[in-house]
Amino acid sequence: MEPNFDSTIPASEISDKIADLGRTAREQLDQGRFHAARALDSAAVKLEGKAESVAAADKAARALHHASGYLRDHDTEAMMLDFKQLVRHHPVEFLSAAVVTGYVIGRVLRGRPVI
Questions:
Q1: Mean pLDDT score of the chain, rounded to an integer?
Q2: What pLDDT sits at residue 85?
Q3: Nearest to 40 by CA among 67, 19, 22
Q4: How far is CA 53 from the centre of its chain?
Q5: Which DSSP string do the residues of the chain spell out, in sequence order?
Q6: Is the overall model pTM greater than 0.85, yes or no?
Q7: Is 3's pLDDT higher than 60?
């Protein structure tokens, strides 16, 4: 049985629809990026000045603010470029982190203790 293609739709219209889908996906990613940045800022504010281990809480808060600013200031293409450069410059560290992350996620998904 042959697939049923509608040959009455011009290729340019299909191309435009695909481009629209790409723009919509990018807009949704950008909205998620800004939402994540706000969440990081909120977490940082909650951490700032905690009584127990103030130095560690302040360091974590600064890191969260920094991550929030990065998300806010870089679009998805810039973040992918940064990620590729990070992997190229630190391949051993990246692979080590990937293995550890995979191990932890696997343990969590199986319902087993991580350690």
A1: 77
A2: 94
A3: 67
A4: 29
A5: ------TTS-HHHHHHHHHHHHHHHHHHHHHHHHHHHHHHHHHHHHHTT-STTHHHHHHHHHHHHHHHHHHHH--HHHHHHHHHHHHHH-HHHHHHHHHHHHHHHHHHHTT----
A6: no
A7: no
